Amino acid sequence: MKLTNKQKGELGEILVSMELINRGLDVVNINTVYRNYKNADLICMNANNGKSVMIQVKTGTTQNILTGFISDDKGSIPKLEEKIIGPWVFVYMPDDKMSNMEFYILTREEVIELISSSNKWYATEYYRKLKKKYPVGVYVDWLEGGLSKATKLHPEYKSTLRQTSKDNWWKITKLLD
């Protein structure tokens, strides 16, 4: 059975939740209470100390994972920093097999910097003039950071990440210590 994009997004949230639960954390999917909550999908908590963090999960099936943001033709995204309230997990699902999924974890600051710089580059330096608003995406290669693979699709853009963010779950667990 082929999954719809909505089902893939829900599956991404479930698998991120399971990974965090396996790490001893409590997780609540906000979307079970509020339909498509705007700035986060999960609340992750450490029951031992009462700390919590809100997490955004973005699941994509192509090399360009959409962020949910819309940019103007000059590369500006209104209220970007305000709307990113915690860490993000990008789930790359190239097919319907869960065994092929990859998880990229970024801190709030890394998400803001990557989206802001890559979008500015895309809008103003990528050999064209944009004439309308467009959806903002992040390429999986950019999530690999400074690795040589990061230059495959757009060698002109240099990712702001110094190293891969793949499976860096510690970026979330550290916030809850």
TL;DR?
With 177 residues, the chain is of the alpha+beta class.
Structural overview:
It is a single chain. This protein has 177 residues and is an alpha+beta fold. It has one domain: Trna Endonuclease, Chain: A, domain 1. Helix content is 27%, strand content 23%. The chain is built from 5 helices and 7 strands, in the order H-E-E-E-E-H-E-E-H-E-H-H. The protein has helices at 5-22, 80-83, 108-124, 140-143, 170-173, and strands spanning 26-29, 42-45, 52-60, 64-71, 88-92, 102-106, 134-139. A 5-stranded mixed sheet has the order 1-2-3-5-6. Strands 4-7 form a two-stranded antiparallel sheet. The chain is globular, with a radius of gyration of 16 Å.
Record keyword descriptors for this entry:
Trna Endonuclease, Chain: A, domain 1, two-stranded antiparallel sheet, 5 helices, alpha+beta, 177 residues, globular, 27% helix, 5-stranded mixed sheet, 7 strands, 23% strand
SSE layout:
Layout: H1 5-22, E1 26-29, E2 42-45, E3 52-60, E4 64-71, H2 80-83, E5 88-92, E6 102-106, H3 108-124, E7 134-139, H4 140-143, H5 170-173
Parallel strand pairs: 3-5
Antiparallel strand pairs: 1-2, 2-3, 4-7, 5-6
Order of helices and strands: HEEEEHEEHEHH
Gross CATH architecture: 3-Layer(aba) Sandwich
- The CATH C-level name is Alpha Beta
Question: Beta fraction of the residues?
Answer: 15-25%
How many β strands by DSSP? 7
| Secondary-structure class | alpha+beta
Q: How many structural domains can be distinguished in the coordinates?
A: 1
Helix content: 25-40%
Biggest sheet layout: 5 strands, mixed
Overall shape: globular
- Write out the strand line-up for the largest beta sheet, numbering strands in chain order: 1-2-3-5-6
- CA(first)-CA(last) distance: 41 Å
Radius of gyration: 16 Å
CATH fold descriptor? Trna Endonuclease, Chain: A, domain 1
Q: Indicate the low-confidence ranges by residue numbers.
A: none
Number of helices: 5
